[in-house]
Amino acid sequence: MYTATAYAVYILISVALTVFVSRTLSKNGEVYLIDGFDGNQALAKSVNHMLVVGFYLLNLGFVLLRMEAGRGIDQLDTLLLYLSSNVGIVMFILGIMHFLNMLVIHRFRAAQLNRNRADLESKVWLAKSNAEIGKL
């Protein structure tokens, strides 16, 4: 009796959550990516878009796999239990995905900052060396 309703509500809530989280991560993470790519906006936007597509594929695929075929939901309490457990798992996975995305982006940005720091230190060393040679 409630099976189709449960599946429809589950899909709607899960898709809405996935879209909200994806848009939030994409919008707020783009600035971080631009900085990590040394101001290269085109590259940062491209990588950001690929991350969004991968995020959608992974999360929506998981949402669809979580649906239990052949399970009948005939009472309201069973409907609520089904929705809360499945939506809770989706939210948990979205949180893990967010954490993993942030970890990868943070590590990439840290590596970029280290490269920039090394380049700056070598330029400073070269300038000091040239200044000392000039004093001779």
Helix percentage: over 70%
Number of domains: 1
The ordered H/E elements are HHH
Radius of gyration: 24 Å
Which class of secondary structure composition applies to the elements? Answer: mainly alpha
Distance between the termini: 93 Å
Proportion of beta-strand residues? under 5%
Count of alpha/pi helices: 3
List low-confidence stretches: none
Give the integer mean of the pLDDT values: 84
Estimate the global geometry from the Cα principal axes.
rod-shaped
The biggest sheet, with number of strands, parallel, antiparallel or mixed sense and barrel status, is: none
Number of strands: 0
How would you describe this protein?
The structure is a single chain. This protein has one domain. It has 136 residues and is an all-alpha fold. The protein is built from three helices and no strands. The chain starts with a helix and ends with a helix.
